[in-house]
């Protein structure tokens, strides 16, 4: 044995042997201390109502010990709070189209994808913009276009996938029109149908500018009134023509209401004041859970999609940052995803969510199959009878037929100003 080998052998074996006690006293207790301390961590989360599920917070507390405190606001209020009150939260659960407004301000920190346990299983829509390799990338602010930055301190979006993510996807969906089937005696096939004089005074739109303008664009294109270069990034002239059309329709009495919240949309439909409107899938489910016929209608022009994700506050560090990553990994591990899927949304990682759903639930919500047993909400309320099929069919049929994503346009400020003119008209 050479001297160098002898020294190497001593270093490797004897050091481990003689240092074992010291290692046990220093390195090994660390995870135990961390596990104890994480139970004292509170993560304040600012989000829309979509993401603020008390059941998710309760289950996270049970499983990993972290306390999640939700503050649920409407989309615009979430964006405002995240940017102007960066010390009021640890996690910002915002929509991807809002990322264009929020992330460049520097209030959020890029997330290290190496710390995301299920990163490789995240739905590819959020990495490449394509559900399958052959898919077309939809118009608007597709999540992958604002999903990555170049480094840990960057606020500039990357052109392709990197190791640094802006948001970790939580919920997303493909939106269309909700209709009261018991109060409409003909087939609804197009976004243009909402403007039919038959529904004068019984139609409604969502009053969130960045979302409502997209529904309006789907309507105008379907009617043949206007063809946009990119519905998700309109020119000023396109915005002017769109808002002019909406103001005329409003003054003619076409719209019964402009709603801002989930509950408002549900109440408009359950009361029968509105029979056709912009709607979110779980809102339709909430109407149906009250025994009222309501359908989330597939339309020939396709869906308007949206997505949301969790971002970390720029100042988050230490144990709180570790706890936030632990919470995100837990969120993607299946229980929360299954809960969201049962609400009618889609989860960022489908493979883990599937493990927490019955074959009947997965078949109904994800594969477009007829229910083999009653479909119930996460709270146990019956939503669908045996034989029911989800509106719009399977995950691939819905998310594979997206015409545009909710967007922040280059002319966003101008668009919001013009939208407010419509609201005030």
TrEMBL record:
UniProt organism field: Sagittula stellata (strain ATCC 700073 / DSM 11524 / E-37)
UniProt keywords, alphabetically: Signal
Signal among keywords: yes
Pfam families: SBP_bac_8 (PF13416)
Domain of life according to the entry: Bacteria
UniProt signal peptide: 1-24
InterPro entries: SBP, TAT_signal, TAT_signal_bac_arc
Gene3D superfamilies assigned: Periplasmic binding protein-like II (3.40.190.10)
Name of the protein this chain belongs to: ABC transporter, binding protein
């Amino acid at each position: 044995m050479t001297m160098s080998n002898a020294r190497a052998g001593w270093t490797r074996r004897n050091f481990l042997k003689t240092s074992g006690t010291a290692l046990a006293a220093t390195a090994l207790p660390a995870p135990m201390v961390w596990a104890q301390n994480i139970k004292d961590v509170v993560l304040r989360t600012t989000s829309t109502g979509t993401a603020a599920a008390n059941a998710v917070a309760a289950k996270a507390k049970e499983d990993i010990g972290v306390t999640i405190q939700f503050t649920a606001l409407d989309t615009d209020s979430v964006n405002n709070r995240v940017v102007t009150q960066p010390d009021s939260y640890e996690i910002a659960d915002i929509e991807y189209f809002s990322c264009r407004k929020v992330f460049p301000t520097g209030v959020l920190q890029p997330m290290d994808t190496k710390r995301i346990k299920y990163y490789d299983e995240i739905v590819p829509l959020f990495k490449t913009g394509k559900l399958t390799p052959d898919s077309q990338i939809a118009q608007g602010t597709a999540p992958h276009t604002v999903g990555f930055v170049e480094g840990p301190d960057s606020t500039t979006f990357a052109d392709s996938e990197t190791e640094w993510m802006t948001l970790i996807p939580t919920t997303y969906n493909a939106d269309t029109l909700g209709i009261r089937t018991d109060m409409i005696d003909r087939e609804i096939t197009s976004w243009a149908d909402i403007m039919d004089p038959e529904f004068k005074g019984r139609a409604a739109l969502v009053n969130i500018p960045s979302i409502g303008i997209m529904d309006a664009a789907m309507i105008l294109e379907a009617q043949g009134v206007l063809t946009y270069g990119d519905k998700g990034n309109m020119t000023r002239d396109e915005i002017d023509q769109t808002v002019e059309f909406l103001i005329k329709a409003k003054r003619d009495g076409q719209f019964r209401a402009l709603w801002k919240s989930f509950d408002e949309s549900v109440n408009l439909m359950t009361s029968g004041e509105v029979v056709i409107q912009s709607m979110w899938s779980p809102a339709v489910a909430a109407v149906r859970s009250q025994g009222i016929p309501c359908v989330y209608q597939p339309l020939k022009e396709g869906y308007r999609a949206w997505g949301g994700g969790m971002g970390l506050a720029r100042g988050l560090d230490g144990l709180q940052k570790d706890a936030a990553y632990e919470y995100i990994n837990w969120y993607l591990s299946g229980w929360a995803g299954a809960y969201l899927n049962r609400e009618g949304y889609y989860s960022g990682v489908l493979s883990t969510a599937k493990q927490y759903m019955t074959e009947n639930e997965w078949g109904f919500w994800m594969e477009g199959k007829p229910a083999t047993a009653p479909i119930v909400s996460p709270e146990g309320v019956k939503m669908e009878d045996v034989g029911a099929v989800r509106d719009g069919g399977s995950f691939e049929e819905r998310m594979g037929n997206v015409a545009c994503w909710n967007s922040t346009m280059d002319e966003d400020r101008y668009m919001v100003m013009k939208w407010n003119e419509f609201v005030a008209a």
